[in-house]
Amino acid sequence: MEEPPIDDIHVDQLDDEQDVEFRREEEEQELTDKDQYLEELLHKCQAVLDSFQPVEEVKWEKRMETLNENWEASRPLIFKTILFSQCPGIPQECEVCHEEPWFVRCEECSGKKMCHRCDATTHEKLLFHDREALVDDSFQHIPPNVLVNDNGKVEECRKHLFYHDLSDMCPQCQQRNTLSLCPLAGSIIVVNQKGRFDFNDYTVVCSCCGYYINPWSLERIIAAGYWPGSPKDFNYLFDQNLFRQWDLLQKRLPGSSEVSFLKALGDFSQSKGRVGCFLL
Ligand SMILES: [Zn+2]
Ligand SMILES: [Zn+2]
Ligand SMILES: [Zn+2]
Predict the structure, then answer these.
(1) How far is the CA of 237 from the centre of ligand 2 (A)?
(2) Helix, strand or coil, per DSSP, at residue 127
(3) Looking at the CA of 99, which ligand is closest?
(4) Which ligand is nearest to the CA of 208?
(5) 242: Cβ contacts below 8 Å, ≥ 6 apart
(6) Which ligand is closest to the CA of 178, given by its number?
């Protein structure tokens, strides 16, 4: 085979070297382009990120501004409504029976104004409703064991926890409608998330066989969602939800004082016309 002339070899080698140089330049250019593209992309990303923060802040600020403006605009109406709600005026007709003038208002019955009869009927079983009586032309908070008579005068009455939940059948002789309430001296004090409620102690007797039912059995108390102060003394009953509330509160506010918690409950009771102190 005939070898190529030396000059031709030289020319071929030069061509190869030029090719390599060209490819290297091309690769370098390609890398530079990619770098530039990445750089631009990063700039764009940063711009997008930067654009988020101020927009959110403006939005939040604008929202708060609008909210405050709305409150400000509503302030005269709110003030007038609250002021008006505290002015009893002349008692108009009961909002339940529409027959007699009202003397009691219950905030937990959607602020309904009731006559003495409708109040007594409605709240016979709703023992934990905070009510207000119209006394001497102003509202006065009254506890569950206080009612307003048909002359518009405030008077005490007895209230019996669990009584309406008891069966009407005697567990001894199995007769129906033979059970009646026997009032006892002393109180049953319930403490729940709204503070302290005082009820009257009682027992239930069967007129047929003379059997006495103790309404304060440990099983009934626990099943009804309460917890006695002691397994043998049922004068104080604590709502189990109060324990849950205290448990959650002290986890969120470690170091909270149990005594202060009970004092705050007492203050709330007092603000609603009930006994405020706890003898624990
Ligand atoms: Zn009525
Ligand atoms: Zn009510
Ligand atoms: Zn009986």
Answers:
(1) 22
(2) coil
(3) 1
(4) 3
(5) 191, 192, 193
(6) 3
